Each structure stands twice: as C-alpha cells, then as structure tokens.
Amino acid sequence: MNGHAILSLVASASLLTGCGGSSGSADPVALDLDPPPAAATLACERPQPAPADLDGLAGGEQEALWIADRVNLANCAWQHGVLIAWAKGVVGAFQFMDGSKQRDEI
After folding, report:
1. DSSP string, 79-105
2. Could you state, in order of their start, the residue ranges of all structural domains in the chain?
3. Span 60-76, pLDDT tens digits
4. Closest Cα to residue 40, out of 7, 8, 1, 68?
C-alpha cells in the first residue's frame, strides 16, 4: 500500500470516527479500504514434479526445470511480502487512529 492510500485511509477513518462519536449512533461505520494489489493475490505456481526420465535429460534441460521452479518460488515470496506490507499498512493506520502508536512509529 502506498503512502497516499495509507494517508487517505487514516484521514477517512479519522473523519468517520469523529462523526460517529458525535451522533450517538450505535451503527457500525463502514470504511472503504483499498484491496491489496491484485498481483499479490494470485495463486503461486506449484513446484513441478521431476519427470520420470530426469536422469536421461541433458544437463541444460535439468537446469531449465530447476530454474523455472526457483523463479516461481521467488515470485511467490515477492507476492507474500507485498501482502505483508499491505496488511501492516492497514494495521498501522488503525493503530495510529486509536492513539496506540505515533505517526513516526508506523
């Protein structure tokens, strides 16, 4: 989540909190949160099983299979990292709103 989205979330939630507290309403307030980046929510590629004739493959062919799995693993790690960053941004915004953290701690 970029800084602009986090700032928008904090500003929106702060305004909603202020309005909700003065109205005396017990109704929950809906927040419009940005979803995580679409690329980070795609399913990761599964590792490919080694072919039965692995020993019969040339070295370059074995290497190509290994590289493809390594690339998929690296992409999956990137997706996971993006989702973690997005979740930390959302949690941090709520902690800032309730006063449990200072802005420079988020």
Report:
1. HHHHHHHHHHHHHHHHHHHTTSS-GGG
2. 3-105
3. 888 888 899 999 999 99
4. 1
